[in-house]
Amino acid sequence: MVSAYVRYFDVDLRDVDEDSLGAGYDSFNAFFTRQLRAGARPVADEVAVVAPSDGLLRSIDRIERGTTIAAKGHAYTIGELLADEAEAERYVGGDATTIYLHPRDYHRVHCPCDAVARAVTTVPGRLLPVTDAAMAREPMLFARNERLVHHLETPHGAMAVVMVAAFGVGHMSCAYRQVPVHPRQIQRVLCEPGIPLKMGDELGVFHLGSTVVMLTQRGLRPILPDLPIAVRMGQGVFEGSDAT
Prior knowledge:
With 244 residues, the protein is mostly beta strands. The protein contains six helices and 16 strands. The protein has an eight-stranded antiparallel β-sheet, with no helix packed on it. The N and C termini lie far apart (50 Å). The model has no long low-confidence stretch (mean pLDDT 83).
């Protein structure tokens, strides 16, 4: 199954840890959640915020008053995405960065800057596909699907990294905190005391592909050219307001 998947989706195995690749994988999940060799994703530590995952960076959208995002193919409020209207107010004036992970991509999600994890929220929902066609049919898709939300405190203010499930993704896991998942209830698990994380540390894992939405507060400036653009985890996305 793994070899057929690699051929069908043209998965690049050059960055995979050689020991793991040589030993093979005892399950499809072990392959899909594969780790990479050391140095495969250098982190651009001269910038303020880096991409938390590999994938297609579809858009960076300003979060206006009312916390509504209206990006190509989808429209939702940040309150609906986070399942928390009060939390959403913190991001008014900031940006929502959306990265789509293709089945061929590396599917671990990492910390976009030095941070302290303050809480993790699990939001039950559907497992609809996140393709362009699916989003055209269901504009509220990102606020309908199951989500895992990492609430971070950073030198650049509050930040949320939202892992959005998709078709076939029945499981997402948190790397730094054990998080029980309830099939019908929103659960917010506090990290007390906060858990310190470095830029590039692992946040969580998709056990099949999906989408990441990163929410940042005002004061950061995008540094990428015209979007959409393919990015790799660790690639610079924002510089700080005091950058020259």
